[in-house]
C-alpha cells in the first residue's frame, strides 16, 4: 500500500477527531461577523475556497479565499486564516510576516515544529492528520472538516459517507476513461478543483474542473465517449442528460461532497496504478514548496 492509499483510508477517523477538536479551537478560528480571508497554496487554496463559501453562505461574515501569493494587501480584514500542511511553504510564511502586527492571523497546520508556529498569532494543530506523501489527502479534508464543524455545518453523515466512499467499488469503466471533468456548485467548486488536481498530480491524467453552470459554456465540448464528468453535490437540472447525450460517462454525487472527494482520491490512485505510476512520487513535485531567497 502506498502512503497516499494509507493516508486517504484514515480520513473517517481524522474527521471524527477534527470535529471533536473544533470547540477547543474556537478562539483561534474566525468569530461571527469578522471579515476574513482564507489563504493557502495548491490543495490548501482549494480547501480555502470551499471554506470561504461555506462561511459566507452561513451568514458568518464576508469571507474571501486567495492563493497566498495573490493576497490583495490593499484590502482590510479582521483575520487571515492560512492553511498549510507543512508549515514551511514560502508564500504562506511571507504573507504572515507581512501581516504581523497589522492583521490577526491563524494558521491551521499539521506540523507543530515548523516556522509557521511563530509566524501566526493563533494556531490550530492537526498533527494526527499529517502525511508522509507529497500528494495531500487527509490533511486537506481534515482541515476543512475542522472549519465545517466550527461553523456548525459538519453533518454526522459525512463520516459514514466517507466510509462508504472507501469501500464502494468505483463505477465500471471509469478508470479507463481518457479525460475527467469535475464539477461543483457553491462550496463544492473548491472540492471539484481539488479533485482535478489529484488526478493531475497522482495519475498525470487530463483532468479539468469548473463551476457546474459554467460547464455548458464551452468545456462540455471535450465530453464524448471515453470521458467522465463527475458532479460533487447536487447537479443543475438537465445537466446529467446533456452529458449522457454526448456519449460521456456521468457520475452523480450521491454522498456528502467531502466524501465524494474521497472517492475521487481513490480514482486518482486507481488510474495511477493502471498507468504503472507511483502516486507517492509525483512528477516534478515536492511535499513543500520552499523558494530560494
TrEMBL record:
Gene3D superfamilies: Glucose-6-phosphate isomerase like protein, domain 1. PROSITE patterns: SIS. Keywords: Isomerase, Repeat. Transmembrane segments: none annotated. One of its GO terms (molecular function) is isomerase activity. GO terms for biological process: carbohydrate derivative metabolic process. Residues 25-168 form the SIS domain. The keyword Isomerase applies. Pfam families: SIS. PANTHER family: GLUCOSAMINE--FRUCTOSE-6-PHOSPHATE AMINOTRANSFERASE, ISOMERIZING. This is Putative phosphosugar isomerase. It comes from Streptomyces viridochromogenes (strain DSM 40736 / JCM 4977 / BCRC 1201 / Tue 494).
Amino acid at each position: 500500500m502506498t502512503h497516499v492509499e494509507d493516508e486517504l483510508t484514515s480520513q473517517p477517523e481524522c474527521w471524527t477527531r477534527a470535529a471533536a477538536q473544533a470547540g477547543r479551537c474556537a478562539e483561534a478560528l474566525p468569530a461571527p461577523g469578522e471579515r476574513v480571508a482564507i489563504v493557502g497554496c495548491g490543495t490548501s487554496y482549494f480547501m480555502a475556497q470551499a471554506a470561504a463559501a461555506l462561511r459566507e453562505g452561513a451568514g458568518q461574515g464576508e469571507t474571501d479565499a486567495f492563493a497566498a501569493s495573490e493576497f490583495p494587501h490593499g484590502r482590510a480584514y479582521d483575520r487571515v486564516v492560512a492553511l498549510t500542511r507543512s508549515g514551511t511553504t514560502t508564500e504562506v510564511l511571507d504573507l504572515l510576516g507581512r501581516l504581523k502586527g497589522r492583521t490577526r492571523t491563524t494558521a491551521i497546520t499539521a506540523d507543530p515544529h515548523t516556522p509557521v508556529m511563530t509566524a501566526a498569532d493563533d494556531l490550530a494543530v492537526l498533527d494526527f492528520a499529517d502525511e508522509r506523501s507529497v500528494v495531500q489527502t487527509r490533511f486537506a479534508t481534515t482541515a476543512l472538516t475542522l472549519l465545517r464543524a466550527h461553523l456548525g455545518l459538519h453533518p454526522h453523515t459525512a463520516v459514514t459517507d466517507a466510509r462508504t466512499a472507501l469501500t464502494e467499488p468505483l463505477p465500471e469503466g471509469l478508470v479507463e476513461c481518457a479525460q475527467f471533468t469535475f464539477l461543483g456548485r457553491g462550496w463544492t467548486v473548491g472540492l471539484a478543483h481539488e479533485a482535478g488536481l489529484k488526478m493531475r498530480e497522482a495519475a498525470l491524467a487530463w483532468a479539468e474542473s469548473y463551476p457546474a453552470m459554467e460547464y455548458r459554456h464551452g468545456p462540455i465540448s471535450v465530453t464524448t465517449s471515453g470521458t467522465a464528468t463527475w458532479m460533487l453535490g447536487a447537479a443543475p437540472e438537465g445537466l446529467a442528460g446533456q452529458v449522457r447525450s454526448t456519449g460521456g460517462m456521468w457520475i452523480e454525487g450521491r454522498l456528502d461532497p467531502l466524501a465524494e472527494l474521497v472517492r475521487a482520491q481513490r480514482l486518482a490512485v486507481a488510474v495511477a496504478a493502471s498507468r504503472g505510476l507511483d502516486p507517492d512520487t509525483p512528477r516534478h513535485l515536492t511535499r513543500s514548496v520552499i523558494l530560494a531567497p
